[in-house]
Structures are given as C-alpha cells and as structure tokens.
Write a structure and sequence with these properties.
single chain, about 250 residues, alpha/beta, Ubiquitin-like (UB roll), Rossmann fold, three-stranded mixed β-sheet, 8 helices, 12 strands
C-alpha cells in the first residue's frame, strides 16, 4: 500500500514537471514569434569597413522606430530594411532574415574599391570592381590605383566607368590583378580616351600608354624597356617611354 502511494506521488510530481516544462516551452515559442533583437554582419575586404555596424543600427532605429522587442515577426519590415540599407553608397547588397529565436539577421556586402579618381578642386571618388563610382569615406581610405586628368574627372561625374569607357576598366583590372604592375604603377593620368599616361613607383619616366586597348601587348613592351634598355642606358637616361604605337618602344 505504501509503495503504491509513493508511486502515485512520484507520478504526480513527474506529470507536474512535464506540464510546467510544456508551458515554458509554449511560452518560449510564443516569445520567439516576436522580434527579439538585431544582429549585423558586414563583410570587410582586408579588414576595411566603409560601413560600420553602429551607423547601420542608427539608420535602422531612425527609419523604423516601430522595430522594438515584442513586435510581431509578421510586422517586421524586412524588405523596407533591405531597401533602406541598400541605399547606402557603400552597400552593394543587404539581406535581412529573421531566425527561429526572433533575431533579425542583417547581412551586408560592401562595394570593393579598385581605383580612386582624384580631383584637385572637388571631392574624390572610388571606382568599384563593377565600374560604379562611389564617394570616398571619411572613416577609411583604401590604397588603390589613382586616376587623375580631365577625362577621369568626367568619368567621375558620369558615375559609371563601364558604360562610358569599358576599356579603361580592363586596364585598371589588369594592373590591380598583377602583383608586379600593382606595385609598380601608382597612378594614371587620363587626359582623353586615347591619351593615358602612367607614373611609376620606381623610375621617373612617364609611360605614354595611348588608349586602353592591346593592354597585354603594351605592358610586354614596357617590360622589354625595363629588362633590355634600362640596364644598358641607366634609369636616368630617358624622360619618357611610349608604347602607344603598335610594335614600337619610343624612348626620349
């Protein structure tokens, strides 16, 4: 008889614990159906962040004041948040999702600068890997190829290098993707589509490149100048070297 009573008590306790656990689980699941907070992830190219988490949070707080803990998940404006953050000049893509625990996850991809257009009397601008022109940042500076000259300034005003001068993007990519040329060529003077001049890290000669076509062939002739002409004549023998004409290396 005593064992039966003990068994009933134990069973009663277990059932109550199960019930309490179930109620807690239901309450927790109900809690997860509401907004519980924000997590921001930003991809940083080489540790450089043109977009900062604090800035993103500030934008969201100002643009979506209704986004507070307890808001029903169905009322979280995911598309609106993506559109608002994508409007940031340094943001390439914004993706907003809500996890099972009610946390809003915001993934941000930044534009990657590949060159910088410098202007003496106005603000500079970066050229992204896609050829889009974006403003510079007051927080970070990216060490990239510098473009100067009147035609480069026109491209900055147009806002899109690909549509205006796609061959120039090919030239920028060629330099940026080659370890030697990336270190050696510091800036381009783009006076017109057919008058591009290069300045070097080592060597005082101006390289007259002409237009941005036949890129590999022209650089192969510059290497001939380095390997065969400079060792015999010396680094200070010439003021300029031109490879703008086919099959020619003109040194003066």
């Amino acid at each position: 008889m005593r064992k039966a009573r003990v068994k009933k008590v134990v069973t009663f306790i277990i059932l109550n614990l199960v019930l309490i656990g179930f109620i807690g689980f239901v309450e927790k699941q109900s809690l997860y159906k509401t907004y519980q907070g924000l997590e921001v992830s930003i991809d940083g190219e080489s540790g450089v962040y043109f977009v900062e988490e604090a800035e993103v949070r500030k934008i969201i707080e100002a643009s979506f004041p209704e986004l507070k803990v307890g808001l029903r998940l169905g009322e979280v404006p995911l598309k609106g948040i993506e559109d608002r953050i994508s409007g940031h000049p340094f943001v390439k893509l914004a993706d907003a999702t809500v996890g099972q625990k009610g946390i809003l996850h915001l993934m941000i991809n930044q534009y990657q600068p590949i060159a910088r257009i410098a202007r003496p009397n106005a603000a500079d601008g970066y050229i992204t890997t896609e050829g889009k022109v974006i403003p510079t940042s007051s927080s970070y500076t990216s060490r990239v190829l510098i473009l100067e000259g009147p035609h480069a300034e026109k491209l900055l005003d147009k806002g899109d290098v690909i549509s205006e001068m796609p061959e120039l993007m090919d030239l920028i990519r060629f330099i940026s993707e080659d370890e030697f040329w990336r270190a050696q060529i510091t800036s381009l003077e783009v006076n017109s589509a057919t008058d591009i001049r290069m300045y070097q890290q080592v060597g005082s000669q101006v390289i007259e490149f002409g237009d941005a076509w036949d890129i590999a062939d022209k650089f192969s002739r510059v290497k001939i100048f380095y390997k065969e002409i400079l060792p015999r004549k010396g680094w200070d023998a010439y003021r300029r070297v031109s490879v703008k004409f086919k099959d020619q290396i003109v040194c003066e």
